[in-house]
Automatic annotation (TrEMBL):
Residues 1-24 form the signal peptide. This is Glycoside hydrolase family 43 protein. The lineage of its organism: Bacteria, Bacillati, Actinomycetota, Actinomycetes, Kitasatosporales. GO terms for molecular function: hydrolase activity. PROSITE patterns: TAT (PS51318). It holds the Pfam family AbfB. Transmembrane segments: none annotated. Keywords: Hydrolase, Signal.
């Protein structure tokens, strides 16, 4: 059995969602999401879409736009999508607002220069951006205003957390809160320092679950990302974890969180000390985290971003409660076939035996762990699941671990009519063939991996 990560307290997540005002749920503005998607696999015909707008390691004068359906495999949508009319653009944070537009706020100067403003731009499609204005943060003797981060509270109010330093010590930053005082996001309240986090903290990112505010913030002395909680947005916050508490290492910055389709939380952070970008997952309300993994495609080229998550139309479609066979998208004579309880990819043709055709036929059913996901049953009633990341068929033992091991999230494939199946409890891992065996392997962001993990549902062989 693949050792599962710590199981998310799903009932706790549901209670937290129930505590939100109806408008927040309907608009998809659950805390920390900043978009229009909550924690569930997308239904057939829909897709999850994560968008990031990072600046470049080689150029802080422009930003790229990337999107992903799994928060792991980000693909370039548009290079140099937005260049401000003056100054620079660093640390861009993205929001999907209730007016249907996307907004970014960003640092307007390079790190060496005095920077008393934060910039704003808007887009209707995430690709074409219009500059709105530079806003001077009204703090006396301000030296630098860096890394503005959007935060939408459970009452729908929109905020920015910005890290500011003053001229008496330009490298000692304190997080301040600005609240939008109009719906067009052009007027802001006076800055209020987040009590309890204290000076010399930067890149503060907030998530609210239930009645608790969770802050992730970089300690500029130790270079570790710390963790704090509060019962009020402005604090006082209590710093609960310091040092290398999560196993992420030092010289890390720009933490940004998003909730995954399976209810877990993913943090992204900039490993500027080694030139890489990382992600890590938690399933126990931020107490423990998976080992950090390098983010494919983005790592090494892009810097400091936040994520907006949406559920959009036009996703892949796969009917349930029907029998299907599954053909490899890049080896078109080969099909899924159960062999001694293992799932392999042999050649199947009209001349194959009846037993071989039967072993290549499966019933598609609703996911055991998530009804929007998918599970697959063989003729004997056993379910496809992963065990030590090998795809195999076993009898359902009724446990939640088995249900999660046997549930897959439908994602778009590379070829027309093809789909991909992401592991429900190991996000970023896909059913893919390797040496004609089916495994659940981590995406490496390459075209070959996407092809190896793409399959075409076809009329059942038997």
């Amino acid at each position: 059995m693949t050792p599962p990560p710590a199981t998310p307290a799903r009932r706790t997540l549901l209670r937290a969602m129930a505590a939100l005002p109806a408008s927040a749920v309907l608009l998809g503005e659950a805390p920390g999401l900043l978009g229009s998607a909550l924690a569930a696999a997308p239904p057939s015909g829909s897709a999850t879409r994560y968008t990031i707008v990072p600046f470049l390691n080689s150029d802080d004068g422009t930003v790229n736009v990337y999107q992903s359906d799994d928060a792991t495999d980000f693909r370039l949508v548009k290079a140099s999508a937005y260049t401000p009319p003056r100054n620079r653009i660093r640390d861009a944070s993205i929001l999907k607002h209730t007016d249907g537009f996307y907004y970014i706020t960003y640092t307007t100067h390079t790190w060496q220069d005095t920077s008393t403003t934060i910039g704003f731009a808007r887009s209707s499609d995430r690709v074409n951006w219009t500059f709105l204005y530079d806003y001077t943060v009204p703090i006396a003797n301000l030296s630098r205003a860096w890394a503005p981060e959007w935060f939408v509270d459970s009452d729908g109010s929109v905020h920015i957390i910005v890290s500011c330093s003053t001229t008496n010590d330009q490298w000692i930053f304190t997080p301040y809160l600005l609240r939008a005082t109009n719906s067009s996001l052009t007027a802001w309240s006076s800055p209020v320092a987040l009590s309890g986090i204290g000076a010399n903290h930067i890149d503060t990112f907030l998530v609210k679950l239930g009645s608790t505010y969770h802050a992730f913030t970089k300690n500029e002395t130790t270079k570790y990302i710390e963790y704090a909680t509060a019962a009020s947005l402005t604090g006082p916050y209590t710093i609960r974890r310091t040092g290398d508490w999560a196993g992420w290492g030092s010289y890390r910055e720009g933490p940004a969180l998003v909730q995954l389709d399976n209810g877990g939380w993913r943090i992204f952070f900039d490993g500027y000390g080694d030139g890489s970008y990382y992600y890590s997952d938690s399933y126990d309300t931020f107490a423990t985290w998976s080992a950090p993994a390098e983010l494919p495609a983005v790592s090494g080229t892009d810097r400091h971003f936040t994520v907006v998550k949406e559920t959009v139309s036009g996703g892949p479609v796969l009917a349930k409660n029907v029998t299907r066979s599954f053909r490899s998208a890049n080896y078109t004579t080969r099909y899924w076939q159960e062999q001694s309880s293992l799932l392999n990819l042999p050649v199947v043709s009209a001349s194959s035996t009846t037993a071989e055709k039967q072993a290549s036929t499966f019933t598609v059913v609703a996911g055991l762990a998530d009804g929007n996901g998918y599970s697959f049953r063989d003729a004997a009633g056993k379910y496809l699941r992963h065990w030590d990341f090998r795809a195999r068929f076993d009898a359902n033992d009724g446990t939640s671990t088995f249900a999660k091991d046997a549930t897959f999230v439908l994602r778009a494939g590379t070829a027309s009519g093809s789909v991909r199946f992401e592991s429900y409890n190991y996000p970023g891992r896909y059913l893919r063939h390797y040496s004609y065996q089916l495994r659940v392997d981590p995406s490496d962001g390459t075209d070959l991996f996407r092809q190896d993990s793409s399959f075409v549902p076809v009329t059942a062989w038997a």
